[in-house]
Amino acid sequence: MADGLQNLIADYIKKAPDYENRALMQVAAELLKAQAQRLEQAEGEVDGRTWDHRKW
């Protein structure tokens, strides 16, 4: 889903009529990328905590 949204944002950036809209969409793309990275890190942390044999 994030890839599809990323593509939509990229398409809009190319077609945006003015600087303000392009800038807003660029920030939205950066936010989406940061959120995806945080989600991946959180999933890794959950996996790490789940497989910690000391906490079984």
Automatic annotation (TrEMBL):
Superkingdom classification of source: Bacteria
Protein name: Uncharacterized protein
Lineage of the organism: Bacteria, Bacillati, Bacillota, Bacilli, Lactobacillales
